[in-house]
Amino acid sequence: MRLEGRTAVITGAASGIGRATAELFAANGAHVLLGDIAEANGQEAAAAIRAKGGGADYFRLDVTDAASIEAFRKQALERRPHVDIVANVAGWGRTEPFVQNTPEFWRKVIDLNLMGPIAVTRAFVEPMIARGAGKIVTVSSDAGRVGSLGETVYSAAKGGAIAFTKSLARELARYNITVNCVCPGPTDTPLLAAVPDKIKEAFTRVTPMRRLAKSSEVADAILFFASAQSDFVTGQVLSVSGGLTMAG
């Protein structure tokens, strides 16, 4: 699943699934534009890719801030003539009972997990329409398909990302642009590292394959949707969860 000559924007690319995706895309020939709010980690991730002979640039990106998205867009298009692939990977959540949530918490979760992918996609989609080609991949979560205890608003936001994917896929199919969604289950990332061990152990017990996903395994699914091997696949949702949900 080679990506030679392609330019890919990847959000949340400084760590976890986003970094694994950037590394995999670059290893398969893409020039990757890493966006993340974590500047030191983002610069290091891009440098590591370049050290292996890949093409990579890092630009600071806060997907919850319209001015930051516009600045990222301008920097991306100054560096590369156009963007072929947008991978919306940035996201965030915290396990907490709904009745303990604050409105500020709701807003942060919704802005990062739903409005962020919408806004980043909007920033790059018009040139794709003009060229009649493009790939958009959003990382949602199986929480958005079946719900998740202690992640009610997060599940709602991720469910919205799935619906956004399906609707946009219908709208953009006529322009030869595919729009798909990857839904990880519990994955061994820095975000999950903050979860208590007993919860991680519970995730492992209820997963039929009896382990957490690796970031690289989620990146493999993102690569499929970003590659020519999925040119006739759009509006689809793929779970990478070791059989945890088996959602229909």
- Please compute the radius of gyration using only Cα atoms: 17 Å
Q: Kindly name the structural category.
A: alpha/beta
Largest sheet: 7 strands, parallel
Percentage beta strand: 15-25%
Specify the helix fraction band.
Answer: 40-55%
Distance between the termini: 27 Å
CATH superfamily: NAD(P)-binding Rossmann-like Domain
Poorly predicted residue ranges:
none
Q: In the residues, how many domains can be counted?
A: 1
Produce a short descriptive summary.
The chain has 248 residues and is α/β, with parallel strands linked by helices. The chain is built from 9 helices and 9 strands.
Give the arrangement of secondary structure elements:
Elements: E1 7-11, H1 16-27, E2 31-36, H2 39-51, E3 55-60, H3 66-79, E4 85-88, H4 103-131, E5 134-139, H5 143-146, H6 152-172, E6 177-184, E7 187-188, H7 190-193, H8 197-206, E8 213-214, H9 215-226, E9 237-240
Parallel strand pairs: 1-2, 1-4, 2-3, 4-5, 5-6, 6-9, 7-8
Helix pairs in contact: 1-9, 3-4, 4-6
